[in-house]
């Protein structure tokens, strides 16, 4: 068994345990393997271990990996998620190559993705990134701006709004982590109550996925616990 295969098994077990503790069905929580900074070979090993959804932060790096995997594993069904900050000059690459964008926080970017999604591809699946703790240097929109942007994005052609994503500032205890995630869950439920058909609440990473699952996460994004420490601090 490869290290990545073993790590994936442990992460899946962790998710199952967190679900059991929260009284949730483990089938409701997906796993996004965050492969940023790791090469195509790491993705291939995870793919061989049954992992299908991968997250990338840096557009250029992600596109290179997408193309490499398309060449080496043309028959594989892989779902590629863009989870990093998005600039206007990168939207065409994202619209062309990715399946999901989780880091949407501005209408201008959404409009560009909508206009640039190639006709032959299925709708681009999107989540809005919400900022929960006012961290100055993190992307994401503020909760009060969320309802208006959600309605506007839901109305755009070629995009399908699926839900919310958040990256809280690291805090130490389970209860403190859970309190922040619970705010995301409340915002998610408010949007659903307003009539939007959302099914994805993307939250939880290597350090805090247990708290995220207990607060209703439907997709955890895990990098280091699967692929190991990243070479550079990101
Ligand atoms: C890097 C990253 C992750 C994964 O973080 P780990 O601590 O390696 O599990 C998840 N989500 C986003 C948006 C990231 O940038």
Question: Brief overview, please?
Answer:
By secondary structure, the protein is α/β, with parallel strands linked by helices.
Describe this structure in words.
Strand 5 (124-129), helix 6 and strand 6 (159-165) form a beta-alpha-beta unit. 42% of the residues lie in helices and 16% in strands. It has a single domain, classed as Alpha-Beta Barrel (TIM Barrel), CATH 3.20.20. Helix 4 (91-97) crosses helix 5 (107-116). By secondary structure, it is of the alpha/beta class. Strands 7-6-5-4-3-2-1-8 form an eight-stranded parallel β-sheet. Residues 34, 36, 57, 83, 167, 205-207, 221-225 line the site of pyridoxal-5'-phosphate.
SSE arrangement:
Layout: H1 3-22, E1 30-34, H2 40-48, E2 53-56, H3 59-72, E3 79-82, H4 91-97, E4 100-104, H5 107-116, E5 124-129, H6 146-154, E6 159-165, H7 174-193, E7 200-202, H8 209-214, E8 219-222, H9 224-227
Bound molecules: pyridoxal-5'-phosphate (PLP).
Pyridoxal-5'-phosphate (PLP) binds at residues 34, 36, 57, 83, 167, 205-207, 221-225.
Number of strands: 8
Using the coordinates shown, work out and report the CATH topology.
Answer: TIM Barrel
Highest CATH level, the class? Alpha Beta
Overall tally of domains: 1
Largest sheet geometry: 8 strands, parallel
Order of helices and strands: HEHEHEHEHEHEHEHEH
Structural class: alpha/beta
Strand-residue fraction? 15-25%
Mean pLDDT: 95
Question: Which word captures the global form?
Answer: globular
Cα Rg: 17 Å
Based on the model shown, name its key terms.
about 230 residues, alpha/beta, TIM Barrel, eight-stranded parallel beta sheet, 9 helices, globular, binds pyridoxal-5'-phosphate
């Amino acid at each position: 068994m490869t290290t990545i295969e073993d790590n994936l098994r442990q992460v899946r077990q962790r998710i199952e345990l967190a679900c059991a503790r929260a009284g949730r069905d483990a089938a409701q929580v997906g796993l996004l393997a965050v492969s940023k900074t790791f090469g195509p070979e790491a993705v291939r090993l995870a793919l061989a271990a049954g992992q299908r959804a991968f997250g990338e932060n840096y557009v250029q790096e992600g596109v290179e990996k997408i193309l490499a995997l398309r060449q080496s594993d043309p028959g594989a069904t892989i779902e590629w998620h863009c989870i990093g900050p998005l600039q206007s000059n990168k939207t065409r690459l994202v619209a062309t190559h990715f399946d999901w964008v989780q880091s949407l926080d501005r209408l201008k970017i959404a409009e560009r993705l909508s206009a640039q999604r190639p006709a032959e591809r299925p709708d681009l699946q999107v989540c809005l990134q919400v900022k929960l703790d006012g961290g100055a240097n993190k992307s994401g929109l503020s909760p009060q701006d969320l309802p208006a942007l959600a309605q506007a994005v839901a109305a755009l052609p070629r995009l399908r709004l699926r839900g919310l994503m958040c990256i809280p500032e690291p805090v130490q205890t389970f209860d403190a982590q859970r309190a922040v995630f619970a705010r995301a869950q409340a915002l998610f439920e408010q949007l659903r109550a307003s009539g939007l058909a959302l099914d994805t609440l993307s939250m939880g990473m290597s350090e805090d996925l247990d708290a995220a699952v207990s607060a209703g996460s439907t997709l955890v994004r895990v990098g280091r616990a699967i692929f190991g420490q990243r070479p550079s601090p990101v």
